[in-house]
Structures
1.
Amino acid sequence: MTLNIAVLASGRGSNLQSIINSIENGYIKDAAIRVVVSDKREAYALERARNHGIDAVFVDPLSFSDKDQYEGRILEVLDGYDVELLLLAGYMRLLGSNIVRHFKNRIINIHPALLPSFKGLHAQKQALEYGVKVAGCTVHFVDEEMDSGPIILQKCVPVFDDDTEDSLAERILKEEHQIFPEAVKLFAEGRLNIKGRIVLRS
Ligand code: GRF
């Protein structure tokens, strides 16, 4: 059986690319990305999808009267693909409860900080300004709060005195490209069990 994956992405899509590559090279088995949906017409993620023969759909938030209508359309698109796992790969919006409930425990996000520190936007900048000596990234299941669901994997990197937001983001991104595919692989193999906030690996 092939796991049907959908991806929501707003930007350049390097994390999407890491999942595409991991499926194509056999690291993640028995899984396929069926569709990539973006809230940005120009998102390079859509182009990456097309380059790999994956359906790419732009849903314009501005053409709906509110968030529920907008997300209702996204749900309609996803339902057309029998989606079993939804990945947020640089999707810059907070998911509403309809989507979260529809895919309960089947939505995974990548965040460029060691949660629960530095939730939300500009996480790397927040980390630098706070003065932490270790930063990193987190892959987690999505619940109805922002960047708060059960943690699947984390990876840390050092912070250097001369780091800029860009240099730190780049160091973290390399690790994102490792742990996001690893988490998807674990999910696809049925090896993630959620007990309250705790994710156990078998
Ligand atoms: C990544 O840093 C991810 O952790 C965050 O947004 C960025 C997206 O990068 N949520 P990309 O579009 O995957 O290249």
2.
Amino acid sequence: MTSGRGVWITLEGGDGSGKTTQSDLLASRLTDAGRTVVRTREPGGSAVGQLIRDIVLHHRGDIAPRAEALLYAADRAHHVATVVRPALARGEVVLQDRYLDSSVAYQGAGRVLDATEIRDLSLWAAEGALPDLTILLDLDPAAARVRLDSADKPFDRLEAEQAEFHGRVRDGYLALAAAEPERFLVLDAAASADEIADRIRTRVDSLLAAC
Ligand code: TMP
């Protein structure tokens, strides 16, 4: 990110792609190395965002696709202004589960809204803020579904979408990564957690050394 002295890393991928495991591993490694790490997420990385998260993930019944996009953008606007920018200004590492690429993949590709409009909406909400690094954990939605099924948790609104929706989300993510190869690190989420963590470690170490 251009303003602030910290480092901003986001994790992206379909539901069940293993972001939480990798975020846990990276956070402990950075903390052990003496970094101050702020772990956060969208939606729900602030008190206001938690209310929005409850609506977008658990509202029973339809939400119009454009209303859904605006709810995620509202969460993002408040989160970036009140959590992300202040942490970066303090020189901290922000390790964030999901950001605007989720909106382009889920609301753009998944809900079949215009990807450029969705990205522009998020950039407006976040006053143009972009992460230093985005790690995309790429996984075949069928394999992700097996993982989600074995977790034995009720599905939220997005997880409950059809296989075709999740296929479009995956393609949307891969298109984003192809368009911005410098910001994205794309990893095969079917690999072992250790292998993935090693690849992340190498990339994050070089990012931190350059900062
Ligand atoms: P998670 O925090 O458990 O990953 O759940 C968040 C869900 O919200 C996930 O299915 C992806 C979805 N989502 C969007 O559709 N658009 C967005 O902009 C974000 C941040 C998440």
